[in-house]
Design brief:
Elements (H helix, E strand, L loop, with lengths): L1 E5 L6 H12 L3 E3 H11 L2 H12 L5 H12 L8 E4 L5 H9 L6 E6 L2 H9 L1 E4 L4 E4 L26 H15 L1 H12 L6 E6 L4 H11 L3
Parallel strand pairs: 1-3, 1-4, 2-3, 4-7
Antiparallel strand pairs: 5-6
Helix pairs in contact: 1-9, 2-3, 4-5, 6-7
Bound molecules: BIS(adenosine)-5'-pentaphosphate and zinc ion.
BIS(adenosine)-5'-pentaphosphate (AP5) binds next to helix 1, helix 2, helix 3, strand 6 and helix 9.
Catalytic activity: AMP + ATP = 2 ADP
EC number: 2.7.4.3
Subunit structure: Monomer.
């Protein structure tokens, strides 16, 4: 299974990725998690990416495309993978098409922007694993601690209200066009295009997982 999870910041891509990846036994490729790991490690990429991410803008296509190509060449991606937060621009989507990366599904998770602000402000993350919680909607078993490792949870630097607003603007301008890109490709060419599925991302985490599994079975 090779799929893209498409959706606005805070739509629940990371949350649902965990369940989908478990079910299909595939790795989650989150470009956001990869960039945050580079920031934490203080690599040249991380130093460059930090300011861009904190502003809510996108890291350059060349850097991201290079990172992803390297990642999907790893042996654990041979049976498939899930893209979370990638592609995010038309050039990124074109790069996958040009490289002949065959995808089975694009799954769009749709959440209204007003719900997103509340989700982001209560988000807590476990950086090492990418696991994500919410203080109210999806709390960890012990406040402030990751369920699996017990390690401390953090609040992301780009979850400040101003940055969230900017990220939503950037989504509208640069990523939302991918909805047409993939849905029109699927309508035109049912054999080589990935199947396009859209689900509502409003409701409980479990309900949305059930919708995702159902959408990926048809
Ligand atoms: P990235 O890490 O990809 O962030 P994003 O797309 O903005 O998405 P988020 O991680 O914020 O949200 P999510 O959809 O994963 O939601 P989550 O499951 O956490 O990117 C960060 C930055 O890196 C970008 O701004 C950019 O600078 C750079 N970058 C990354 N990829 C790039 C690329 N390809 N090109 C260029 N630049 C790139 O859920 C959110 C919250 O809601 C959580 O608290 C969760 O617990 C809660 N929640 C989840 N489901 C529900 C529910 N059903 N009900 C209530 N709450 C819920
Ligand atoms: Zn995420």
């Amino acid at each position: 299974m090779r799929l893209i999870l498409l959706g606005a910041p805070g739509a629940g891509k990371g949350t649902q990725a965990t369940f989908i990846c478990q079910k299909y036994g595939i790795p989650q490729i989150s470009t956001g998690d990869m960039l945050r790991a580079a920031v934490k490690a203080g690599t040249p990429l991380g130093l460059q990416a930090k300011a861009v991410m904190d502003s809510g803008a996108l890291v350059s296509d060349d850097i991201i495309i290079g990172l992803v190509k390297e990642r999907i060449a790893q042996p654990d991606c041979a049976q498939g993978f899930l893209f979370d937060g990638f592609p995010r621009t038309i050039p990124q989507a074109d790069a996958m098409k040009d490289a002949g990366v065959k995808l089975d599904y694009v799954l769009e998770i749709d959440v209204p922007f007003d719900a997103i602000i509340e989700r982001m402000s209560g988000r807590r993350s476990h950086p090492a694993s990418g696991r994500t919680y919410h203080v109210k909607f999806n709390p960890p078993k012990v406040a402030g601690q990751d369920d699996v490792t017990g390690e401390p949870l953090i609040q992301r630097d780009d979850d400040k209200e101003e940055t969230v607003k900017k990220r939503l603007e950037v989504y509208d301008a640069q990523t939302r066009p991918l909805v047409d890109y993939y849905s029109q490709w699927a309508a035109k060419d049912g054999t080589s295009a990935p199947k396009y599925r859209k689900i509502s991302g409003t409701g409980s985490v479990e309900d949305i997982t059930a919708r995702a599994f159902e959408a990926l079975a048809r």
